[in-house]
Amino acid sequence: MKLDRVVFYGRLGEQAMQMFGLAAELDRWRGSTVLDCPGGPGTLAAHLRAEGCDVTAIDPVYALPRADLERRALADLEQTMAIQATSPTLRSDFDLEACRQEHLVALKAFLDDHRAHPDRYLSAALPDLPFKDQSFDLVLCGHLLFSYAPLADGGLMAGQGLDLTWHRRALSELCRVSRQQVRLYPAHTIALNARRHPYAEALLAELPAGWRGCFVPSIYDQGHRGCTDALQLVRLEP
Ligand SMILES: C[S@@+](CC[C@H](N)C(=O)[O-])C[C@H]1O[C@@H](n2cnc3c(N)ncnc32)[C@H](O)[C@@H]1O
After folding, report:
1. Is the pLDDT of residue 40 over 90?
2. 166 phi/psi in degrees, rounded to 5
3. Ligand 1 atom with minimal separation from the 125 CA
4. Is CATH 3.40.50.150 what the domain over 13-235 is classified as, yes or no?
5. Which runs of consecutive H residues, i.e. helices, occur in the chain?
6. Is residue 237's pLDDT more than 80?
7. Confidence tier at 238 by pLDDT (50, 70, 90)
8. Do residues 200 and 215 touch, judged by C-beta distance below 8 A?
9. What are phi and psi of 126, to 5 degrees?
10. If you ran DSSP here, which 8-state letter would residue 160 be given?
């Protein structure tokens, strides 16, 4: 599968909880400040807020008026589905139509939450976030780093993509704004037989001072085989 830009594409909060291994940890994070970066047209922020977290979501596309957010999400969903329908990176038993319906449910719930809490959805972009150091207890980053690396490096981008230098700056920024943890998913290549993403291995080997990390398998199924790892990073001294 290949794309020529980062798509405005969102998932259900329950799916994101699987991606980040959070479902069994809610008691730990209740009452915490959380950054969803990027939020996309997904419902992780709404889900965590309903569970008692203080959540902010950022995405450069949030600069658009709400009606345009919906139009953009629908256009990107249909384009991505059309590409996935002929993609050799998906397992033959993966139900793409069910997946499409889940994205539509997520989009509707996202728009409802965006309407109810517009101040919690901010327009911003990595690698420069408009937050002070250690502003959030937990920083979550789904389907941006690693996924949008160039095709040749195990990502989705037909052109230049987000290269390793960009990834270094983005990860350093995610760590800067986090007080406790940063979790990234996927940390694997986007391929039928996924493997650990080489950028994720490189970044783990050169973490900012005061951080340690590890790969953690995820139970979220997005239609590949093989590696399902997320990358979890912990600040040693808050
Ligand atoms: C595939 S979506 C992922 C959304 C959600 N985190 C998920 O896992 O479903 C990627 C998102 O990254 C956003 N994006 C693109 N460039 C970005 C940047 N430089 N910094 C932060 N977000 C960016 C896009 O607008 C898009 O909503």
Report:
1. yes
2. -60, -45
3. 20
4. yes
5. 13-19, 26-29, 44-50, 66-85, 96-116, 164-176, 198-205
6. no
7. low
8. yes
9. -65, 145
10. S
- 81-90, 147-156, 175-184, 217-226: the lowest-pLDDT one: 81-90
CB neighbour list of residue 117: distance below 8 Å, 6 or more residues apart: 49
Sign for the pseudo-dihedral over CA of 150, 220, 74, 115 = negative
- Output 159 or 100, whichever has higher pLDDT: 100
The SS3 call for residue 231 is strand
By most ligand atoms within 8 Å of CB, the mutation choice from 59, 72, 146 for ligand 1 is 59
At 84, list the tokens: 């996935």
Expressed in angstroms and rounded, the spacing between residue 107 Cα and the centre of ligand 1 is 14
- Mean pLDDT on 53-77: 96
Q: Is the confidence at residue 187, as pLDDT, over 70?
A: yes
Closest approach atom of ligand 1 to CA 36:
6
What are the structure tokens assigned to 147, written together? 């996924």
